[in-house]
Design a protein that fits this description.
about 170 residues; mainly alpha; 2 domains; 6 helices; about 75% helix
């Protein structure tokens, strides 16, 4: 007797988001230690609350996804190997171009977080925006470069000059 495995996309995404919310809660406690403030009024309070809310919501969604998958899969308990193979073909996680673009986008965001400290805000943001616009398949390169440069300069001037918030200069430009 073969049973269809729980291979639901919702369950996988919920597990990933639960891990992310746990990381967010953990990281919010390191903000407290860096700032030396009390836990009740520290800068880590809002990320901690968001992480806790995200954890609770995703746990509820995970439980409901597992319940829905189990009730759907009761009809998949089968005795015949041929029918099992037909059902397994439907459960395989197929990587589509859309999912590949999402993975590439998340990877670029993670890389940007580390490159901004090395190259500085302006250069890394222009490279980041050019890369992100090219993923969206905009064909005119001059538009991509122009928009990326203008947006980066506007954001830089707004934060650095008007709000007086320092932006990373990078190791090469210190």
């Amino acid at each position: 007797m073969f049973v269809k495995y729980l291979n639901n996309k919702d369950i996988i995404i919920n597990i990933f988001l639960i891990c992310f919310s746990i990381y967010l809660i953990y990281y919010s406690f390191t903000i407290d230690q860096l700032q030396g403030a009390l836990a009740e009024t520290s800068p880590g309070l809002i990320p901690r609350l968001i992480g806790l809310f995200l954890l609770i919501c995703n746990f509820i969604l995970l439980v409901s996804s597992i319940k829905n998958t189990i009730t759907k899969n009761k009809s998949y308990v089968i005795d015949d190997v041929d029918n099992y193979n037909k059902n397994v073909k439907n459960t395989i996680f197929i990587v589509s171009p859309r999912i590949i673009r999402i993975i590439i986008t998340l990877s670029i965001i993670i890389i940007y977080r580390y490159v901004i400290n090395i190259l500085g805000f302006y250069i890394s943001s222009i490279i980041f925006l050019v890369t992100m616009f090219s993923i969206t398949k905009i064909n005119k390169w001059w538009q991509i470069i122009l928009i990326s440069t203008v947006v980066t300069i506007i954001i830089g001037v707004f934060f650095k000059e008007l709000l007086r918030i320092p932006l990373p200069d990078g190791y090469f430009f210190e």
